[in-house]
Amino acid sequence: MAGRQVRRLVQAAGVAALLCSPASAQQAPTTTPAQQTPPSGGGATTPSTTTPSTTTPGTTTPGAAAPNAAAPTPAPPAATQLPPVDIIQKKAQPAPKTAAKKAPKKQAVAPAPAPPSEAPPQLDTPATYQPGEGGIDSGSVQMSPVEGSAIPIGKYPGAVGRGSAEDFNRTGYTYAPEVLQQTVPGVILEDAQGNVFQRNLQYRGFESSPVNGVPQGLAVYQNGVRINESFGDIVNYDFLPDNAISGMTIIGANPVFGLNALGGALTIMMRDGFNYQGAELNVMGGSFGRYQGGLAVGANSGSWGGFLALEGIHDDGYRDFSASRIRRMYTDLGARGDGTEFHLNFTGAANFVGVTAAAPEQLLDLNWANTFTSPQTTKNQVAMISANGNIEVSPTWSLQGVGYYRWFKQSHVDGNISEAEECNGIPGVLCLEGEDDDQLFGIGPGVNADGSIPEDIADPLGSLDQTSQVANSFGFSGQAVNKDSIAGYKNQFLIGASYDRGNVAYGATSTLGSFEPKFVVNSLGILLVAPSEVSPRDLTTINDYYGVYFSDTVDLTSDLALTVGGRYNFARVQILDDTGTQPQLNGDNTFQRFNPMVGATYLLNPGLTLYAGYAEANRAPTPAELACSDPAFPCLLESFLTADPPLDQVVSHTWELGLRGRMQGYNSERFEWSAGLFRALNSDDIYQIADEVSGRGYFDNVGDTLRQGIEIGGRYTDARWMLYANYALVHATFQSAFILPSPDNPLAFECEEGPGSPASDDEPNCLQVNSGDRIPGVPLSRFKTGFDYLITPEWKFGADLVAASSQFFYGDEANLNAPLSGYAKVDLHTFYDLTENVQLYGLIYNLFNSQYGLFGNFFNLEAANEASEANPATGDDFFTNPRTITPAPPLVAYGGMKIHY
Prior knowledge:
mainly beta; Maltoporin, Chain A; 5-stranded mixed β-sheet; 11 helices; 47% strand; membrane; Plug_dom_sf
């Protein structure tokens, strides 16, 4: 079906190839399009139509010419468009093997396929991206970060999770990871920062976080651009306007996606003028001073397309000092011709986030809104311009490319308890932890002539630690895709290369402060300049990442597809001291590795596919980790860097095995499901280790870690209902025995003095971690379920539940203490169409006002009780429990209106 007539038909209708293409028929004999669940509104969406190859609902298949056309979003109006049941039944009839044998070109225009006028309802269906999706012919999945490398999901040898624009619409979520938490079994959110716009995405026990110092185990791409930031591989999801996201796909470890793909890769595709036409204005307000507005506009003239999304959010926060101001935008300009498509796009944001972090349980018992050691704020800014394109050189060859420039600026302020005490042998002045060889020197009011700081400067003492980074990064990727058959076997071969460079100017300072009521640290204006642990830092870090990759998927039979691939990664990380006074900070580290992958899928019957795969991936230590890996010189986390020994790179070895299938009823009933096993073994895993000095720590390789488990998901749809449920068991454990400092753990033992032990008369507490101990912060079980019900053609109602089991506290790697309790949260949403263009909606999150924690660790009781002297609500010696948690948001309610055309 690669003849000229089929290509013209595809370009005119955008769907005929769905029913006629052998590539689709081989793995997707049931050509029934996904059933549309009751939609909730949004601008009209149409698919890319420039490719002559197979297209399935909502995605672009191999050789697609539209770089941004993956995961298009559903069409409005909201509840007024019922699923096209009659179309589904008509299109389930073509026999799969007969379709695969249609070779003569003149049969391509036979009247058997559905007429073009019926095509849009098929391609607009959001079912591929709804919770619990798992159908064997539900769209396609990219085999590289760059668009244009897709194969049918039925041929991908691993689990595939999705989130779409429709998922944002139906839930009202404004933070991309929240959608993935609901739709992907293995995803759960963690909150070390205490702000809904700064949560960690955790997939199968691997983290993707906006927090420096968290080991980043996922590679994240936006329109083919790697958006793991240069300094710490962090990912700032708060930069992404939810009304600009077309679709998200998350897969397990795949080396083709480059560094950090230990646990998997997340690709985020944005809207453009070809996959979204219309305009939508969305305004909303409600609990805790929340008000927001968003605008999305898209249009095209056939050969030119444009899209613009703007979004502003103000939220006072559910805790003290936790206000957020989000300002973000995305715009795209695209052009397409005969076999070509190019896009130029821009992402910009300027956000302020109050990150209130964990607080002592005793303090939260007094008031769920209480915070500890404020201020804690983050300012994030980004400006990124990127260009991507696709050229069909011939019917079987295509070229794709992406280039970008990204500017990122972050300023972080963190109030902490100071470790300054009167020097043991030098009365009247301050030392760090009271040690004579760590005397504090500073610049500012009240400082002695020699720079020493008087002991009676203030009581109790705090510190304000400030970090900043300005990153300039650029890069490009290029690839070629070939679909020539090999010895009569259908085949897709991909080869490509990438280069990413990041240049970061990093600075850090610490000033002394005094504690005020509510544990607020007020600066005394004294800048600390010695000892080296707290002296200012002024560094430049340079990252150069090179990659060469390939993958090949061949149909060995009509039912069996084999995929092989691999990638060579070379990483160079340089650290340069800009002050000229601390040359020991300079460093130059290189890492390299070739990572292979192999997998296969087998079509057991027209509604059932078996998959199995093996992959390796690696992660190079970040500049933040490399410069903070010496236990004798711990860093102030998120802050100070020291001269340190190099770390080893982390390597993952991942196995996957599973089934996915679907059943289709005689009417509109449809059931899709998936079930799989995974096992990911990390070698030389890097772990963040706490120091006895509060707020300080370092990074070290701790041997092997293992994350293994099961994932199950299912979804049922008919003319009025959409119901889904998914479950994942994630057993994350240490596989090597080692002794780990844990200074604030109440059940730890006194460390034995040895190499790397801090030079102190009071040895810190330690833990004996054994193989099989669970990794903190990873719930063993997570369960999600929900439904949508079309009450009337204008009115839809739905609910979503997410539940997670208990998890161990950070700092309790030996699993000695009672864990952080599990939780369950219920959200409600309802939408009502006043007219064809106006919709009212209401949202309730945490319906039962459940109080639970999303993160837990320990704190220093002695230092906290000193700080509590300044707080009238607590007074002296208030704290007896060293556990701190990040409280989840209480019940909140919002109401809003959408106007769309």
